[in-house]
Write a structure and sequence with these properties.
The chain has a domain of 198 residues: FAD/NAD(P)-binding domain. Helices cover 38% and strands 26% of the residues. Strands 5-4-13-14-15-12-16 form a 7-stranded mixed beta sheet, sandwiched between helices. α1 runs parallel beside α5, α1 runs parallel beside α10 and α2 crosses α10. It is globular. The protein starts with a strand and ends in an 8-residue tail after the last helix. Pfam families: FAD_binding_3. This is FAD-dependent oxidoreductase. InterPro entries: FAD-bd (IPR002938), FAD/NAD-bd_sf (IPR036188), FAD_aromatic-hydroxylase (IPR051704).
Length: 399
């Protein structure tokens, strides 16, 4: 194929990064995104290890560092609001070796600027059907538009429509780790100033933080699915479920829950991973969470998306447009890296959400003791070393 036309489903971090690199390699990418516009806001994300190299090769690293969240302190509190442990923001977030924390919306905006002039993006639309032919993939869109592309890449997340159309139903590939996550903007009634505060209760954790340049705050709720009285269906039921799970908790949790239940941007989903034997089928391939979601508990979703996009575009270019060879090489390079980061998820979530009151008491006592020890930041840095090893578990080629 010469100047292959590639349809990318999803204008998230993975899709936009892929569009940038495909364009650089002489491909003609088109991005289709069901949201009406580029998604603003969002939670804070970490760019680590190999993803820093990708950002540097895109000429974005300096801008990313300028837009860092600036979170200076992380604190764990008990049910009375008493500080159990406190440490610097990077140690609290497991960041080492130049890792950068940035709001997803800020990163998204930086990436999109790199593609705005060279890539067509169809907002407010989505793929509804795929039909592979000897020469390409016929694609139907929800808008009624139909077109043929040389390749189709699904970068449309955990609940990927592209994956469902090309590989089969979601339940075959998505593994629920047994936890739920909810995130939203909330009023900064604690007057947090570039701080993060975490509350831990049996079966549930709640945290709030503020970042540089923002007046408000964000809240995250993590809890075991065992805390639910049946899986909620629809936004209203999810809001009621969130209120029920956290009813009776201490500290400022009731006030945050009240704000979350009323928040228009409340996000709710399972903590899940995606596992497939292959990431490509014919002329269709998967990228990012659609291919190998490691779960938010891994802290590596954004880095995996950026690195995967770089490798996929590079291997397709190196294969001279031969999609079979390019897809195979992409998977050989990326699968060990993705699997190393997926292994972080199940272990991390068990440390983030304690199952019993006894576990909570033991964790609080341990953190309280650690908080009094000299060199506690070095001890914590050693504890998060596995994250750095996973983040650097790939050697990036220069394509």
């Amino acid at each position: 194929m010469k100047n292959p036309n590639v349809l990318i489903s999803g204008a998230g971090v993975a899709g936009v990064t892929l569009a940038y690199w495909l364009s650089r390699h002489g491909f003609t990418p088109t991005v289709v995104e069901r949201a009406p516009a580029l998604r603003a806001g969002g939670y804070k994300v970490d760019i680590r290890g190999a993803a820093l190299t990708v950002a540097e090769r895109m000429g974005l690293l300096e801008e990313i560092r300028t837009l860092r969240t600036g979170v200076r302190r992380g604190t764990v509190v008990d049910a009375t609001g008493k500080s159990v442990a406190s440490m610097d923001g990077d140690t609290f977030g497991g960041r080492t070796h130049g890792d950068a924390e940035i709001l997803r919306g800020d990163l998204h905006r930086l990436l999109y600027r790199r593609t705005a002039e060279s890539v067509t993006c169809l907002f407010g639309d989505s793929i509804t059907a795929l039909r592979e032919t000897p020469d390409g993939v016929e694609v139907d869109l929800a808008s009624g538009r139909s077109d043929t592309f040389d390749l189709v890449i699904g970068a449309d997340g955990l609940h990927s429509v592209t994956r469902a159309l090309a590989f089969g139903p979601e339940e075959r590939f998505v593994r629920d780790l047994g936890y739920r996550i909810s995130i939203c903007d909330v009023p900064n009634h604690l007057r947090l100033d570039r701080e993060e505060v975490t509350y831990v209760g049996p079966g549930k954790t709640m945290l709030a933080y503020s970042t540089a340049g923002e007046e408000g705050a964000k809240a995250m709720f993590l809890f075991g699915s065992a805390e639910l009285d049946g899986e909620p269906d629809g936004p209203a039921e999810r809001r009621r479920a969130l209120a029920s799970v956290y009813a009776g908790e201490g500290w400022e949790v009731p006030r945050f829950v009240e704000s979350a239940v009323a928040a228009p941007d409340l996000y709710y989903d399972s903590i899940s991973q995606v596992h497939l034997d292959r990431w490509s089928a014919g002329r269709v391939a998967l990228l990012g969470d659609a291919a190998h979601c490691a779960s938010p508990a891994s802290g590596q979703g954004t880095s995996l998306a950026m690195v995967g996009a770089y490798v996929l575009a590079g291997e397709l270019a190196a294969a001279g447009g031969d999609h079979r060879g390019g897809f195979a090489a992409y998977e050989r390079e990326m699968r060990p890296f993705a699997e190393a980061n997926q292994r972080l998820g199940p272990a991390n979530i068990k440390r983030m959400v304690m199952r019993t009151r006894g576990q909570v008491r033991l964790s609080m006592a341990t953190l309280g003791l650690l908080d009094k020890l000299p060199g506690k930041d070095r001890i914590m840095a050693k504890a998060v070393a596995p994250i750095h090893r996973a983040a650097t578990a790939i050697t990036l080629r220069t394509y």
